[in-house]
Specification:
- The complex is a heterodimer of chains A (668) and B (320).
- The longest helix of chain A is centred in the C-terminal third of the chain and has 25 residues.
- The radius of gyration of chain A is 29 Å and the shape is globular.
- Chain A is α+β, with helices and mostly antiparallel strands and 668 residues long.
- In chain A, 34% of the residues lie in helices and 18% in strands.
- In chain B, helix 2 crosses helix 3, helix 6 packs across helix 8 and helix 12 crosses helix 13.
- The radius of gyration of chain B is 24 Å and the shape is flat.
- The chains are: A alpha+beta (668), B mainly alpha (320).
Amino acid sequence: MRRRASGLLAALLLACSNNPYPDADADRKILYTNYREAPRTLDPAVAYTTSAHAITGNVYDTLLEYHYLKRPYELVPGLAEEIPRAEPRPGGRVAYRFRLRPGLLFQDDPSFALGGEGRSTREILAADVAFELMRIADPAVNSPVIEPFSNLLGFRDFTGALAARREADPDFAARPVREQYAELGGIEGVRVLAERELEVVLAAPYPQILYWFAMPFTTPVPWEAVQYYDGQEGREHFGDHPVGSGPFQLVEYNKQASMILDANPNWYGVRHPEWRAPGATYPTEGEASDAERGLLDPALVGQPLPFLERIEFRREKESIPSFNKFLQGYYDAAGIIRESFDKVVREDRLSPEMAELDVRLEKSVIPAVYYLGFNMEDATVGAPGGERARTLRQAMSLVIEVDEWLRLFANGRGVPAESPLPPGLFGYDEDYRNPYRRVDLERARALLAEAGYPNGIDPETGKPLRLTFDTPDTSAQGKLRFEFYVNAWRRIGLDVEIRATNYNQFQEKVRNGAYQIFQWGWVADYPDPENFFFLLWSEMARSKNQGPNTANFSNPRFDELFLSMKSMESDAERLAIIREMRGILEEERPWIELFHPEDYALYHGWLRGVKPAGISNPTAKYRDLDPDLRSSRREAWNEPVLWPLAVLIVLSVAITVPGVITFFRERQ
Amino acid sequence: MLAYVLRRMGYGVVVVLGVLLFLFVLFFTVASPDDVARRALGEKALPEVIEQWKANHGYDRPLWPWQDFDDNMLFEHYRRMLTFDFGRSDADDVLIIERLRQGAGPSLALTIPLFVVGITLGIVLSLFVAFFRETYIDRTGVFLCVLGMSLSILLYIVGAQYLIAKLLRWFPISGFDSDPAVIGRFLALPLVVGIASGVGGDVRFYRTVFIEETGRDYVRTARAKGAGEIRVMVHHVLRNALIPILTRVVLAIPFLFMGSLLLESFFGIPGLGAITVDAINGNDFSTLRTMVFIGALLFVMGQIATDVSYALVDPRVRLE
């Protein structure tokens, strides 16, 4: 009996462990990371969020990719043998020819049986890339990137023809999409020249198209998977069951709890390490600071990828438990939560406690911009208000102190923005200071008087000029942030009202043009200034084409400059044009540029080869870790403290026993 | 008895149908199907994609029977719910029934032990303090119960995560894995929290019931006949106190299936409670409607089961 009791106690003590993973996994090269919300879809033609790209970017390989270490960003060949050159064609068209590597295979999947009994994979062909481009054009797929691909010859025609034919002919609409695409003859500007050769023809020069071939949107997709995973008869949707060509494959997908990627044995890097392909070998060179950051460690350089055998994404809805698990060694990397920021970072450096844990801090500016925008079609603040409205915008721009905003709301994580272009992009000028982005109350007041609002008073009403700030963020935290701007404007006498509504009502207001000031942000799709300036191109105006130019900015000279810089090589001439565009924005003030966000990430000492990417692209294959070091540190950090349990038991007994004894004694 | 049960079931059906009508009005008139579709597909979705999405989810018909008697959303809503054909999630198109099936396991893995251990511990502790009534053990017990009841469960959760998981490192802070090797680790902390936060109320309630029973004549008779104290408490008092205990217990059974909203959410257990919270946060109206409907159904069933169980345990109660 006593032996059984002590056995039970021993079992209980053994069960006492805060390790959330099976003990058997301790010495495996498994990267542990987490996510808050599962991606809505993993369909590469649709998925456009960072959380989705964390999966699709690693599962779906692309024809081209970014050099892992070099900055400014540089393209290298991925599934393609080399980076294609622009070939001019008659009529101002431009063609690019991609040649796929030989013998590439998709990951194993039961859907390939559709192409032949007993098949579990097949070779990746140029037609699979063409198929994916047609899926982007397919209105039923609802791809968010139809716009940039519209530069492909005949792209919009294909979209229109597909929609019209489906509408007119229900039998056609019921057939598998591959047959539908084939019957319409595909997209005119996408030609399969040979099994492994694809040509894309653009109606006009658009050199940025190559960047799109480094994003999962253009990955080869097997028609078998799209046809098989149709959501019918208990089969999954294709958006929940990726079948890719990348270094990893999704082996478990439980949106509520965990997502697991395993190394894909069919990947070309695993099957052909002797190719030493740039996308399958750890780079041998990088930025100047990379050696010092340990990114050119001889243990990594030139090694075949991937290093990891598995990546486990665990769901963490709350940030505090997730950060605590990082501190216990159960996550390999973490962001810094607001609650712990001051404990982790001191004077912009890692705190001694963190340094003691051998944690590294990596800072990187995200190629993004946050800004306050004016609705340029509004009578008071926009273009119809003419010179007066411009001066008003200039005055309003002169009072927003972004350093203070960053300190209050982002722990200082961000670089004040002087123009839309973030650091690291061609055209970014470190020395440029926007004269309207200094805080200068005197000048702001003078400009306001010049605009006809002395001390902010609207002469028509005799009261402070009333403006509205429209936002879909109704949270208390959001309100505090917006109050910051409102208070700044109040200092020059303006009365700005925050109108926070739900998302649908906000969209309704934007659709109807019933807004004056708003806050917005943009994260680069690819590292080119065109991807920022197009946000202010009149063709992209929200009111006109439902585009991302929510400020509805329209300036003929800006448009002209944009159209000429858009397709240029990045040279001195382009730089001069960018400067002129920047000058127009400086004076016109459709935006009050706020900041470029900065990412602070923490990594444990056992994780190697980590460089923050900025541009959303797959980097897991370059990461390596030392499971033995991790195991030993986890053990040292997580020894259970059991004495309080004993104290608790002794205390309970000590309190109860005298009472029991007295009770029975009195009874007798 | 049968007539009574049938009558109660009739009332139950009326309540469930009423809840369904209420749900319909609330969900379809407040947010139009177009809004729901735009939320799911994004602002830039083309009109034909939105139409297709609405058709896939059955939101493309008129709302009310007087608009189209043969094909309207109200009747369709009733048909679907009453046949348990819940359709697909508004947020990510997953079959809701599939999601319920996935969530039921983790929920039951937490709620069943919580229920069994909670009741057992509640009864044992309350018998113990009732036995020592009017001594300092009783008073300390009641004080601790009231103290325990006064604290919010959120405080228990955060406190336990900090103290037991972070400082003492006994169990993982949060998470779930159905692997038998580690499932116990993940359930331990939510169990401790669930029991600690609930046991105070239970003990106080059962103690009152037991003390009331111990004052009755049959207890004095039992003692007079020479029955020992433990025999009196367990054989006589506990048996006779079963009715109020049953009310509390049987009513709780159906909700075992619904999971625990807060515990699952904070401890990252992918059960039905967490699914409900996610549906609220993600504007997933179809999943939310399903969860509310199931909740109502289980509540009504629980009520009927409680009444029936009275008659079964107490021959004095007649259901008519």
